Structures
1.
Amino acid sequence: AQSVTQPDIHITVSEGASLELRCNYSYGATPYLFWYVQSPGQGLQLLLKYFSGDTLVQGIKGFEAEFKRSQSSFNLRKPSVHWSDAAEYFCAVGAQGGYNKLIFGAGTRLAVHP
Amino acid sequence: DGGITQSPKYLFRKEGQNVTLSCEQNLNHDAMYWYRQDPGQGLRLIYYSQIVNDFQKGDIAEGYSVSREKKESFPLTVTSAQKNPTAFYLCASSISPAASRRSYNSPLHFGNGTRLTVT
């Protein structure tokens, strides 16, 4: 069965520091991978997606993610975090059978210290 | 502006009452979805619909019902059979995978959610 693991429940970084949020997936074929961000009390916004091709994908708000098949990982990175990046981040994988049945990780809540 | 509208933002009900959450989209998307979000559990799929007058159960459909009479609307009813209905409910839409091979696993567009509290 497909699954997504986000090992870090909470992460705190200082403003201006670099950030890496981890995501590991379990999937039997080439996965479709997504990162979404959620501000408190809001819906989810797509940051970036990987379908195929270049394993380093660029997203909105200065985020990027790298697909590593050998490690079954799709970690999200940002070189310099801004206070406005404080939010919850969800990794998701496209489930077998299509129909956009995404499997979401439990999320990582990011806090940013000034 | 195109988007997904969920209403109301907050909803309070007494135990034993059915309640319907509204979801409307003007993105011309064929597919619509309902997710439930609980702290520390991410999002879990309740129901999804690929086309008008058709819908399928997701992973946690028990105690919920939906209808899809119009392309723009996908209301969710939380029935009294749902054991633990208090949660944050998110509606989403997307291009249907049936529309194009390139649309397979196309990104979801989310509404801002409805927080349901049942006491």
2.
Amino acid sequence: DAGVIQSPRHEVTEMGQEVTLRCKPISGHNSLFWYRQTMMRGLELLIYFNNNVPIDDSGMPEDRFSAKMPNASFSTLKIQPSEPRDSAVYFCASSLRGLGNEQFFGPGTRLTVL
Amino acid sequence: GIQVEQSPPDLILQEGANSTLRCNFSDSVNNLQWFHQNPWGQLINLFYIPSGTKQNGRLSATTVATERYSLLYISSSQTTDSGVYFCAVEARGYSTLTFGKGTMLLVSP
């Protein structure tokens, strides 16, 4: 298996633009997680899905952020409009089932909002 | 919300040395995990250990849930162990993970 795939690996955009991050989980995994990492706030779990259904989105910072999982093999994290404070590395991870199983991480997307 | 504190914040070791990293948490948990982030940013889930002891090669972890702490042991450290080690907990009654700030480990040859 290719592991968790994220795209793009790097994204530079201007404030106010829409940003879409993409993730393909490991085939057969039923849970998918979106994380954000910054120097100021460390690692944060933004949202996770079980069987394509959002279970907990308490970490989503504000309404500008939205995440979808239309099928078992694809998820998006969208920021609209983007702001400089959204600059961070965004990781996607997947596990067989839920928070209590080993998570496998993608390489991350480094987002810079100018 | 639950507080997660890791110590020490930084650690420098000579290759071959042993070390113990600590994670304290402020409330009861359903789930505790240890992660390693290498110097290139890649994250790896090391252990899922809400209680008890687990071992994986040179690494082992122990969680004493009643006393609200977990320990990660690294024996015979290698330069490839360098990076940041994070502890994360799922507080009882919640369904999200809260991370500590991490312990940055540098193993020198």
